[in-house]
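Q: Given only this backbone (242 positions), what sequence would you predict?
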Protein backbone atom coordinates (compact mmCIF):
# COMPACT_ATOMS: atom_id res chain seq x y z
CA UNK A 1 0.00 0.00 0.00
CA UNK A 2 1.21 3.49 -0.86
CA UNK A 3 -1.02 5.38 1.52
CA UNK A 4 -2.18 5.03 5.11
CA UNK A 5 -5.73 6.20 5.69
CA UNK A 6 -6.79 6.74 9.30
CA UNK A 7 -10.45 7.08 10.28
CA UNK A 8 -12.17 8.18 13.44
CA UNK A 9 -15.59 6.57 14.07
CA UNK A 10 -18.04 8.74 16.05
CA UNK A 11 -19.37 11.67 14.01
CA UNK A 12 -16.90 10.77 11.25
CA UNK A 13 -17.78 7.35 9.83
CA UNK A 14 -21.16 7.50 11.55
CA UNK A 15 -23.27 10.61 11.80
CA UNK A 16 -23.79 10.41 15.57
CA UNK A 17 -21.85 9.87 18.77
CA UNK A 18 -22.46 6.16 19.41
CA UNK A 19 -22.21 6.63 23.19
CA UNK A 20 -25.22 8.96 22.98
CA UNK A 21 -26.97 6.64 20.52
CA UNK A 22 -27.07 3.64 22.84
CA UNK A 23 -29.21 5.60 25.29
CA UNK A 24 -31.99 4.71 22.83
CA UNK A 25 -31.86 1.21 24.34
CA UNK A 26 -32.39 2.56 27.88
CA UNK A 27 -35.85 2.62 29.51
CA UNK A 28 -37.68 5.68 28.19
CA UNK A 29 -34.57 6.42 26.09
CA UNK A 30 -33.18 8.68 28.83
CA UNK A 31 -30.57 8.42 31.57
CA UNK A 32 -31.43 9.42 35.13
CA UNK A 33 -30.04 12.75 36.28
CA UNK A 34 -27.90 11.20 39.05
CA UNK A 35 -25.93 9.25 36.41
CA UNK A 36 -25.62 12.21 34.04
CA UNK A 37 -24.20 14.34 36.85
CA UNK A 38 -21.24 11.99 37.36
CA UNK A 39 -19.66 13.03 34.05
CA UNK A 40 -16.24 14.67 34.35
CA UNK A 41 -14.29 16.22 31.48
CA UNK A 42 -11.53 13.88 30.27
CA UNK A 43 -13.06 10.84 32.00
CA UNK A 44 -15.74 9.91 29.49
CA UNK A 45 -14.75 6.24 29.44
CA UNK A 46 -15.34 5.91 33.21
CA UNK A 47 -18.65 7.73 32.83
CA UNK A 48 -19.76 5.31 30.11
CA UNK A 49 -18.87 2.37 32.38
CA UNK A 50 -21.44 3.73 34.86
CA UNK A 51 -24.00 4.30 32.10
CA UNK A 52 -23.62 0.70 30.92
CA UNK A 53 -23.86 -0.69 34.46
CA UNK A 54 -27.13 1.23 34.90
CA UNK A 55 -28.45 -0.12 31.59
CA UNK A 56 -27.49 -3.64 32.64
CA UNK A 57 -29.43 -3.17 35.89
CA UNK A 58 -32.41 -2.12 33.77
CA UNK A 59 -32.26 -5.38 31.82
CA UNK A 60 -30.85 -4.00 28.57
CA UNK A 61 -29.37 -6.98 26.70
CA UNK A 62 -26.71 -7.57 24.05
CA UNK A 63 -29.33 -7.77 21.29
CA UNK A 64 -30.74 -4.37 22.27
CA UNK A 65 -27.32 -2.71 21.98
CA UNK A 66 -26.58 -4.54 18.73
CA UNK A 67 -29.80 -3.26 17.15
CA UNK A 68 -28.97 0.33 18.07
CA UNK A 69 -25.41 0.11 16.74
CA UNK A 70 -26.50 -1.55 13.49
CA UNK A 71 -28.98 1.23 12.79
CA UNK A 72 -26.75 4.27 13.38
CA UNK A 73 -26.57 6.05 10.01
CA UNK A 74 -23.28 6.61 8.24
CA UNK A 75 -22.22 10.23 7.71
CA UNK A 76 -23.17 11.91 4.41
CA UNK A 77 -21.09 10.56 1.51
CA UNK A 78 -19.40 7.87 3.62
CA UNK A 79 -20.75 4.96 1.51
CA UNK A 80 -19.32 6.71 -1.60
CA UNK A 81 -15.92 7.03 0.07
CA UNK A 82 -15.95 3.39 1.19
CA UNK A 83 -16.94 2.20 -2.29
CA UNK A 84 -14.07 4.21 -3.80
CA UNK A 85 -11.67 2.65 -1.25
CA UNK A 86 -12.99 -0.87 -2.00
CA UNK A 87 -12.17 -0.32 -5.68
CA UNK A 88 -8.66 0.97 -4.88
CA UNK A 89 -7.92 -1.15 -1.82
CA UNK A 90 -4.45 -2.21 -3.01
CA UNK A 91 -3.26 1.42 -2.72
CA UNK A 92 -4.61 2.14 0.75
CA UNK A 93 -3.98 0.60 4.14
CA UNK A 94 -6.94 1.60 6.29
CA UNK A 95 -7.11 1.72 10.07
CA UNK A 96 -9.65 3.05 12.54
CA UNK A 97 -8.78 4.76 15.84
CA UNK A 98 -11.80 5.46 18.00
CA UNK A 99 -12.69 6.29 21.59
CA UNK A 100 -15.99 4.39 21.17
CA UNK A 101 -15.78 0.60 21.73
CA UNK A 102 -14.93 -2.54 19.75
CA UNK A 103 -18.34 -4.19 19.98
CA UNK A 104 -20.25 -1.14 18.73
CA UNK A 105 -17.85 -0.43 15.88
CA UNK A 106 -17.89 -4.04 14.67
CA UNK A 107 -21.71 -4.22 14.79
CA UNK A 108 -22.06 -1.02 12.79
CA UNK A 109 -19.42 -1.72 10.14
CA UNK A 110 -20.54 -5.33 9.59
CA UNK A 111 -24.15 -4.16 9.15
CA UNK A 112 -23.02 -1.47 6.68
CA UNK A 113 -20.89 -4.04 4.81
CA UNK A 114 -17.54 -2.24 5.20
CA UNK A 115 -15.87 -4.07 8.09
CA UNK A 116 -13.37 -5.89 5.85
CA UNK A 117 -11.91 -2.59 4.57
CA UNK A 118 -10.04 -2.07 7.84
CA UNK A 119 -6.67 -3.68 8.48
CA UNK A 120 -6.85 -2.80 12.15
CA UNK A 121 -9.28 -1.21 14.60
CA UNK A 122 -8.03 0.46 17.76
CA UNK A 123 -10.75 1.12 20.30
CA UNK A 124 -11.73 0.58 23.91
CA UNK A 125 -12.20 -3.10 24.83
CA UNK A 126 -15.83 -4.06 25.41
CA UNK A 127 -17.92 -7.19 25.81
CA UNK A 128 -20.59 -8.89 27.89
CA UNK A 129 -19.96 -10.39 31.31
CA UNK A 130 -21.58 -13.47 32.91
CA UNK A 131 -24.61 -11.41 33.91
CA UNK A 132 -25.05 -10.26 30.32
CA UNK A 133 -24.02 -6.71 31.24
CA UNK A 134 -22.23 -4.69 28.56
CA UNK A 135 -18.78 -3.84 29.94
CA UNK A 136 -16.21 -1.30 28.79
CA UNK A 137 -12.55 -0.76 29.64
CA UNK A 138 -9.93 1.88 28.92
CA UNK A 139 -7.73 1.38 25.84
CA UNK A 140 -4.37 2.25 27.45
CA UNK A 141 -2.66 4.80 29.66
CA UNK A 142 -0.49 7.64 28.36
CA UNK A 143 1.21 10.89 29.33
CA UNK A 144 -0.49 13.26 26.87
CA UNK A 145 -2.04 16.23 28.66
CA UNK A 146 -4.48 17.05 25.85
CA UNK A 147 -6.32 13.73 25.60
CA UNK A 148 -8.85 11.82 27.71
CA UNK A 149 -7.27 9.54 30.36
CA UNK A 150 -8.06 6.32 28.46
CA UNK A 151 -6.83 7.15 24.96
CA UNK A 152 -4.29 9.29 23.11
CA UNK A 153 -4.71 8.79 19.37
CA UNK A 154 -1.34 10.40 18.67
CA UNK A 155 0.36 7.64 20.71
CA UNK A 156 -1.58 4.93 18.84
CA UNK A 157 -0.79 6.38 15.41
CA UNK A 158 2.90 7.00 16.19
CA UNK A 159 3.32 3.44 17.51
CA UNK A 160 1.48 2.00 14.52
CA UNK A 161 3.71 3.82 12.02
CA UNK A 162 6.83 2.68 13.91
CA UNK A 163 5.59 -0.92 13.95
CA UNK A 164 4.84 -0.84 10.21
CA UNK A 165 8.27 0.69 9.51
CA UNK A 166 9.87 -2.24 11.36
CA UNK A 167 7.87 -4.53 9.07
CA UNK A 168 9.38 -2.52 6.19
CA UNK A 169 6.12 -0.85 5.23
CA UNK A 170 6.64 2.86 4.63
CA UNK A 171 3.80 5.07 3.45
CA UNK A 172 4.21 7.87 0.93
CA UNK A 173 1.48 9.83 2.67
CA UNK A 174 -0.87 9.61 5.61
CA UNK A 175 -4.50 10.75 5.35
CA UNK A 176 -6.46 11.40 8.54
CA UNK A 177 -10.26 11.72 8.55
CA UNK A 178 -11.77 12.90 11.83
CA UNK A 179 -13.90 15.44 13.66
CA UNK A 180 -13.00 15.75 17.34
CA UNK A 181 -10.41 17.37 19.61
CA UNK A 182 -8.89 13.92 20.12
CA UNK A 183 -8.33 13.75 16.33
CA UNK A 184 -6.51 17.07 16.36
CA UNK A 185 -3.82 15.62 18.66
CA UNK A 186 -2.55 12.98 16.16
CA UNK A 187 -3.02 15.30 13.16
CA UNK A 188 -0.42 17.69 14.61
CA UNK A 189 2.23 15.00 13.98
CA UNK A 190 1.40 14.78 10.25
CA UNK A 191 3.99 16.08 7.80
CA UNK A 192 3.68 18.45 4.84
CA UNK A 193 3.17 15.42 2.55
CA UNK A 194 0.10 14.35 4.54
CA UNK A 195 -3.52 15.49 4.51
CA UNK A 196 -5.89 16.11 7.43
CA UNK A 197 -9.60 15.90 6.60
CA UNK A 198 -11.45 17.55 9.51
CA UNK A 199 -15.24 17.54 9.41
CA UNK A 200 -16.35 21.10 8.70
CA UNK A 201 -17.39 23.10 11.78
CA UNK A 202 -16.42 20.36 14.29
CA UNK A 203 -13.71 20.74 17.00
CA UNK A 204 -10.83 19.30 14.93
CA UNK A 205 -11.56 21.84 12.16
CA UNK A 206 -11.78 24.76 14.61
CA UNK A 207 -8.53 23.72 16.30
CA UNK A 208 -6.60 23.56 13.00
CA UNK A 209 -7.88 27.06 12.16
CA UNK A 210 -6.89 28.41 15.60
CA UNK A 211 -3.41 26.89 15.33
CA UNK A 212 -2.95 28.43 11.86
CA UNK A 213 -3.90 31.84 13.27
CA UNK A 214 -1.64 31.64 16.33
CA UNK A 215 1.33 29.85 14.76
CA UNK A 216 1.20 30.12 10.96
CA UNK A 217 2.83 27.08 9.38
CA UNK A 218 2.99 25.07 12.61
CA UNK A 219 0.28 22.71 11.40
CA UNK A 220 2.14 21.03 8.55
CA UNK A 221 -0.42 18.81 6.84
CA UNK A 222 -2.69 20.08 4.10
CA UNK A 223 -6.13 20.74 5.60
CA UNK A 224 -9.16 19.68 3.56
CA UNK A 225 -12.43 20.22 5.47
CA UNK A 226 -15.44 18.13 4.40
CA UNK A 227 -19.21 18.20 4.81
CA UNK A 228 -19.75 15.05 2.75
CA UNK A 229 -17.20 12.23 2.71
CA UNK A 230 -17.73 12.19 -1.08
CA UNK A 231 -15.45 15.28 -1.04
CA UNK A 232 -12.73 13.16 0.59
CA UNK A 233 -13.23 10.52 -2.12
CA UNK A 234 -12.87 13.17 -4.85
CA UNK A 235 -9.69 14.55 -3.29
CA UNK A 236 -8.14 11.06 -3.08
CA UNK A 237 -9.23 10.35 -6.66
CA UNK A 238 -7.37 13.46 -7.84
CA UNK A 239 -4.24 12.34 -5.99
CA UNK A 240 -4.39 8.94 -7.73
CA UNK A 241 -4.61 10.68 -11.13
CA UNK A 242 -1.40 12.66 -10.53
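A: Predicted residues:
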Amino acid sequence: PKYLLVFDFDETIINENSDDSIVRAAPGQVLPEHIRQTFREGFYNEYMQRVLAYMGDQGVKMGDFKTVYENIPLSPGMPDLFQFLSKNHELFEIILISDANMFGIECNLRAAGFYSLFRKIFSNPSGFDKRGYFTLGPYHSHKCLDCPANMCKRKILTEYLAERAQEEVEFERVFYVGDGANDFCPSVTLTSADVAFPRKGYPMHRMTQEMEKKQPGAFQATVVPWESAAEVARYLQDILKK
